Every structure is written in C-alpha cells, then in structure tokens.
Amino acid sequence: MTSPLGFNITDNMEIFTGLIVLIAYCCSLAISNGNEFGGCSQTNNNFQYTYRTSYHFQPFRNWINDPNGPMYYKGFYHLFYQYNPLGAVFGDIMIWGHSASYDLINWFHLNHAICPSEPYDINSCWSGSTTILPGSKPFILYTGIDANGRQVQNLAMPKNLSDPLLKEWAKFSGNPVMTPPKGVKVDDFRDPTTAWQGSDGEWRVIVGSQINNQGMAILYRSKDFMHWTKFQNPLYSSERTGMWECPDFYPVSINGTNGVDTSVLNPSVKHVIKASFNSHDYYMLGTYNPQMEKFFPHTDFEGTSLDLRYDYGKFYASKTFFDNVKNRRILWGWVNESDSRQDDIEKGWSGVQSIPRQIWLDLNGKQLLQWPVEEIETLRGKQASINDKKLESGSVFEVSGITASQVDVEVVFELPELEEADEFINPGLVDPQLLCNDKNALISSRLGPFGLLALATEKLTEQTAIFFQIFRGHNRSIVLMCSDQSRSSLRKDVDKTTYGAFVDIDAHQEKISLRSLIDNSMIESFGGGGRTCITSRVYPQSATDKAAHLYVFNNGTLGVVISSLNAWSINKALIGEEESF
C-alpha cells in the first residue's frame, strides 16, 4: 500500500506512524496556543528576515549554538541544541532546545528538553550527547554549570519511552555523575560524547578538557551508565591544541559509504577523534586499542594548515550520530554569524545549523568525505542546466531561470589545457587560506580562478566567489579551493574573511567538481565530491531575494569547460514557529 506522499506504508510503517503522530501533535499545538516551553519562558523579540535562512535549521528567534545529542527514535529525528531563550546573544543561562523531524529537513519545535533547575546545573545546561542503550532507551549526558561555577556531567532520561517525540525528560537523582578530576580546572571539563560499549559490556565516554594547555579526551567507564569511574590515562591528549571542546569519537567503515554504530570495533573500521578548538573542528584518523584504552592516530595534530578539518570556513562544535534507518553517519555543525552583536540583537536571532551531512571515509583512507543528506533534494524546484560550454578567459555567464538567493548548484569543470598550469613545488609549506587571500577571485593565473559567483548583484558590485586554482606539482596537479568574501557586501561592519584549502584530487585523474548550497546569508560549498568543505556567512546589501544573481566565471588566462551544471531553486523548509505552540 502506498501513501499520497509516494512511499510504501507496509515497508515504512515506522515512518508512516511518525507522520501521523507529527500531524496530530502539530494540530494540538495550534489548538493549545500556549507559550511556556518545559518550564522556561519565551520572549517576543522583533527580528529581521533579510538574512534569515530558508532551509537551514534555526529557531524562530534568539541565540543558538552547539548541536547536542542528535538521534533517531521511533520514526523521528531529534535535534537538541544550545539555546538562549531570553535573547539573541550567548546567555548567562543556557538550555537544551529540542526539535524533531521525520526527514532531517522539515522541523517542528518541542518543549525545551533540559533547563537549569538543580544545584548541579543551576547556572546553565551546556553541551552533551545522547546514547541509546539496549531496549531503545535514550540517555542524555550533559554538562551542568553548578552553584559553585564548576562544570559537572549530568544524566537525564525520558519520562515516557513510548512517546516518540520524547517531550519530557527527567534528571537522574544521583547527579552529578562526573566532577572535575584532580589537576583539571573546574571550568575545563565539558561536553561528554556519545558513549560506546566494549566487548566486556562496560560503557565508555570521553569528556573534553585540558591540563597545562595540553588538550585531552578524559576517558570514563561505567557498568550501568549511572556510576562512572575515570580511567587512569586520557584516551588521547595533544600538546599543540589547548582546551578540547565538543569532542567526538566514532568508527568509520573502510569498505564503503555506510555508517556503523558507535560501539562497532572490528578490522573493517578505523576510528575518528574530533576536537573543537581555535574556532575550528579538527579530526584525526587512527586505531582504537580497547585493551590499552588508547587512540593511536595516523598523524598527530601539528598546529598547522595540514591538520584535517571537517570544514575550512565557519563550522564549529559539531556532533555526529549513527542513523540506523539508512545506515549512515550524519554530521551537524554550528555556523555562527559574521555581523555584529548589535546586528544580532536587532535581528532578534543569531546562529544557524549546517545542512546535515552524511560523512564517511574516503577510499584512499586518508580523509573523510561529506555530502548533504539526500533529503535536501526534496526541496528542489525549478532547474537550470548547462552542458559542454567553453569559458574563455574573462568569461562571466549567468545561470538564469532559478532563484539565486535559495539554490542548490552542482558544476563539473574540464581542463583541456591542464599541462599549461602554473608550477607549484611545495604546497605543504604554504597556508592555503593565506594563498586564497593573496590570489583572490580577481587575480589571474593560468588555470584559475574559475568557479561560481554567488549572491551577486547584476553589475557584480557584490559577489561571493567560490573558485578553484590549478597548479602543476611534482607528478600530479595541485587543486586550491577558495571562498572569497572580500566583495560579498557593500556593508563595512561585517566580517569578510576569505577561506581556503587544498583539495586532495589529481585533475589528471578526475574532473573538478563543486556543489554549493546558497541560502540567503549562508553558503556551504563541497569541492571534489566532498573532500573539501567551506561554509561562509555573507550579508549583501543589495544582492538579496530576487535581486540576487548566480554566475559561472573564469578569470584565468586559459579556457575551461563547463562539462555539466545543474542548479535548482530550493523551496522553503517547513520549520515550525514557536509562537504557534
């Protein structure tokens, strides 16, 4: 039997049941018209719509930052997040906001999950994670700021496991379950990860910390998930990082794109350890030894541009979860604003979540790949296509017939004169971000810059250029990817930092590809099939809404070919507004 939405009800009964619950719940919210969420009062600030995203997740108003505890439960995806219910700036009192979705794209807001109420979290409920225990029992571990200003780890569980929306949560009577250990400052102990279960049946979890500026993942173990004991040594530590925020630790398959559960440990996986510091999310690939309770990276953090990152633009405090329905691992990240604090107050909101991304190990085993979840394609509308078009030096070609302020564009370039590219001998000695800043979209080399001009005015007085430069290296080509915000806005009061990174592909072996998701003030770009990701926030003064344009350009002295380009207008996602509750 098939529903009007086009899926088989018999084969997808859990999703169908979730949809019925969603419809009934939204109707009850519209009828109740209440304005109290989980004991935390809401405010009614004024706000602007000019730069508000249309298909990225954000609350209706106020400040949002770290994604917390994403998971799938009984037909619904759940996203918790750091939220200030009292304003559009980071607050003295932070809580866990809570929203749910049946497809990761359309969301409705629920009662706040966790609010300060007890001595162990009275000054804020900071970041943490969810772990689903046997019997489909989700537990939350989160950082509380206690009455003495200490960061302590607390436990919460649903009041009603039969409720697929998990609207009410109860705090464990034995909180806190972890307190700052000896040698750790009371404000350097936070953000517990999703736990994993060893072959001995015991649970493990790591907490971010530092001792004497040495960043680390402190390891804890538990037999019952309620009583935790610190392991004598950290799972991993680094002298080059400082404080580790929002750590993550999980396995990835070496054999394909499918994700695996966080507790999987066998010869077919590698492990990823990720830490947030210096305003970026860095990760290492390596091997987890459960006998030694130690992570051994293939390459340590070096404190240079060679360190691997999820994203080379604005993307922080990320969190992954294993989606067992589609056998994939999903990555969320917080994308903060690039305008001023006063702008945020006037808008009435601040912060956006990235589009959820599927993440997996590259076949070469050297890095992770990321790609927007397939569900985003359900929002695609009008399409424009270009094939086999030569872009001579100095060419600028408009992609027309789509809504350029809300668009998903994929373009593939061919390089018929690749052997004529400029020579570049030692890319490892160069910071690619500085290189992109020096070689911006207006400065020509032989092969590049070429790429997209997003959120541009008709006369290009405003433009954000996402582009490539290609060089000849030793026995292979070198691909530089840049996101140039220097001309993104005529406004003087916004950050216009240029971002850049190398893309680990050989242009002799494959074509150069770029996908960009453009959403009013947000641009997420994926180069080389997701090998390099750059997210930016831009605030054009004129290139907004229907006045925005999208172009393909080539400022290199050699020609390039658009092998294929497909662009789709993206419709607005359905994200429930709190005031309807």
UniProtKB/TrEMBL annotation:
Keywords: Glycosidase, Hydrolase. Gene3D superfamilies: Exo-inulinase, domain 1, Glycosyl hydrolase domain, family 43. The keyword Hydrolase applies. InterPro entries: ConA-like_dom_sf, Fructan_Metab_Enzymes, Glyco_hydro_32, Glyco_hydro_32_AS, Glyco_hydro_32_C, Glyco_hydro_32_N, Glyco_hydro_beta-prop_sf. GO terms for molecular function: hydrolase activity, hydrolyzing O-glycosyl compounds. PANTHER family: BETA-FRUCTOFURANOSIDASE, INSOLUBLE ISOENZYME CWINV1-RELATED (PTHR31953). Residues 375-569 form the Glycosyl hydrolase family 32 C-terminal domain. Belongs to the glycosyl hydrolase 32 family. GO terms for biological process: carbohydrate metabolic process. This is Uncharacterized protein. It comes from Dipteronia sinensis. The keyword Aminoacyl-tRNA synthetase does not apply. Pfam families: Glyco_hydro_32C (PF08244), Glyco_hydro_32N (PF00251). Residues 56-372 form the Glycosyl hydrolase family 32 N-terminal domain.
